[in-house]
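re the bet — no i am not wrong, look at it urself. input seq straight from the record:
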Amino acid sequence: MAKPVTLVTFVLPSTLRHWVGDLTEVKVFAVAASDDDLPTLGGALDTLRRTHPSLEERLRDEYGSLRRHISIFVCGENARRFGGLDCALPPGAEVYVLPALA
């Protein structure tokens, strides 16, 4: 069997668009770790690292964790509340990236 795959749309604030040619959205495929799992935010970020490494470096730190000053919302919900990088992504997920407010 094939691993589940979903198309993910990252919606970016103006402060991060410079790293992707001023695009407002970046689409990537997220692949599940196994046949029985769903694709995750971490998997989508892994793909983003291969296609847009400069952007991904601004979202995750050197340990691979989400940066503290970045908030990520998956389908309108804060990803940190649903496992952070392990947050499951439904088909066609929209991921909003926002700088955290102080």
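see?? The first helix runs from residue 41 to 51. told u. also The CA atoms of residues 17 and 23 lie 6 Å apart. so pay up
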